[in-house]
């Protein structure tokens, strides 16, 4: 129970801020020995737009939030970039939400403060990762029940939060994978594609992956892809028709537009097309690229084929199990979690919230191999 009295604690020499209960006011000293500041940097959507640079501004003096009774305050060390960040900045997921609002879906960092109830399971200094809106900030309040405790702060763990679980749950629930099935993964060297490839191989499937460069094709081979196809130098439809005349049993599709049409045409009898996104259209005002839908019913009927969409938020009941399984696989060396920190980007590594804009651009230029992650440097000066 929180006591009713208010106690005061100083934050970094700034004006006093109220702490609800002296018994955990000590938590508002960073575990490395420095006071938590009263203000921070964060990204905020100020205008609805699929142009991330137009929609989002970097605020330099946002107040550091206080965790509630069941919350953690996490100092973010790495944050994940997702194709859907611009869908969120465009207001496509919840039309009732109006700017300004926070942005970013996932982060990993250190617990630096927590509420009393949360302290039953967590302590200051622990490493956690989470999937909660508002990660594009130096500090984020995370409900303790949504945090995942980790042995250390490593960006590889962050790849699993959205990208890994999307592949794991969608293929488990919708893919019906079994030995010898032919699986086509589009954008196979990207954040979620890399996991779709590896999980399909774990199920003893034959995996075909599309990509946009020979370097990406090499990466796909290194993680077990049987047949990478560079769509910049090869005609994907012609290659599939030539090498796999009976078609694909499962397609894991995230590109949309012409690639979606190709995926439909490549389905085998009783084939299954899983739509987890359509990145090629996200930058458009509608969020979509045109597809040849007029013949779709006939094509599906002819092959007894099916198309199913997958949105991670509808499968949160499976989330904890999926994360635990993926973490075990990674820690035992069974899973590659490729991270792209922007070292090969024109302006170098993605460091600091300022570089989120570059990281989003980098994704939409199709340059990344693996999950794009931005590192937030530790701005706290330790007294230890």
Automatic annotation (TrEMBL):
Q: Which PROSITE patterns match?
A: QOR_ZETA_CRYSTAL
Q: What is its EC number?
A: 1.3.1.48
Q: Name one GO cellular component term.
A: mitochondrion
- Pfam families referenced in this protein's UniProt entry, alphabetically: ADH_N, ADH_zinc_N
Among InterPro entries, the record links this protein to:
ADH-like_C, ADH-like_N, ER, GroES-like_sf, NAD(P)-bd_dom_sf, Quin_OxRdtase/zeta-crystal_CS, Zn-ADH-like_protein
Alphabetically, the GO molecular function entries are: 15-oxoprostaglandin 13-reductase [NAD(P)+] activity; zinc ion binding
The UniProt similarity line reads:
Belongs to the zinc-containing alcohol dehydrogenase family. Quinone oxidoreductase subfamily.
The entry's keywords: Oxidoreductase
Q: What class of enzyme is it?
A: oxidoreductase
Q: Give the matching Gene3D superfamilies.
A: Medium-chain alcohol dehydrogenases, catalytic domain, NAD(P)-binding Rossmann-like Domain
The Enoyl reductase (ER) domain covers 50-374
CDD domains found in the cross-reference section: Mgc45594_like
Superkingdom of the source? Eukaryota
Organism listed in the record? Chelonoidis abingdonii (Abingdon island giant tortoise)
PANTHER family documented for this protein: PROSTAGLANDIN REDUCTASE 3, SHORT-CHAIN DEHYDROGENASE/REDUCTASE
Q: What is this protein called?
A: 15-oxoprostaglandin 13-reductase
